[in-house]
Amino acid sequence: SVPIAKQLASIKALGKGSDLEKGFATVALVYNNSADPEGKLSKAETKSLLQTQFWGFIQGQENKPKYQEIISALDEESENKIDFEDFMILLVSLTLMSDLLQEIKNVKTTK
């Protein structure tokens, strides 16, 4: 498969894109590369993608009730698939509860 960086570089509109735009484009590309032809992920695929591509944000969150609720919903035997909108909601939810978010907030922005 084509590396994400190369896929990003091929999107002309992002040539002078902001860091935020490139960040969201990266999320969309990672999702699309894993999604089925209908643009959806199974719950198992979603859980796997989070564990491989979002590990820094979910690491150490296992004991938090909200994390357990999210992962339990992905573990349920269900044929329901996750679309991009639901995937983004999962990412935001996991980010907001993450210990890594606090570390990011503490990064120095001035010399």
Spatial order of the strands in the main sheet? 1-2
Mean pLDDT: 89
Largest sheet: 2 strands, antiparallel
Question: What is the count of distinct domains?
Answer: 2
Low-confidence stretches are none
Shape: flat
Q: Given the structure, what is the number of helices? A: 7
Order of helices and strands: HHEHHHEHH
Please provide the count of β strands: 2
Question: How much is the radius of gyration in Å?
Answer: 16 Å
The share of residues in helices is 55-70%
Structural class, by secondary structure, is: mainly alpha
How far apart lie the N and C ends? 40 Å
Description:
This protein is mainly alpha-helical. It has 2 domains: 1-34; 39-110, no CATH class. 62% of the residues lie in helices and 4% in strands. It has helices at 4-9, 19-34, 43-53, 55-58, 65-75, 84-97, 99-105; strands spanning 41-42, 81-82. It has a two-stranded antiparallel sheet. Helix 3 (43-53) packs across helix 5 (65-75).
Could you name the key traits of this structure?
111 residues, mainly alpha, two-stranded antiparallel sheet, 2 strands, 62% helix, S100_Ca-bd_sub, S-100_dom, EF_hand_dom
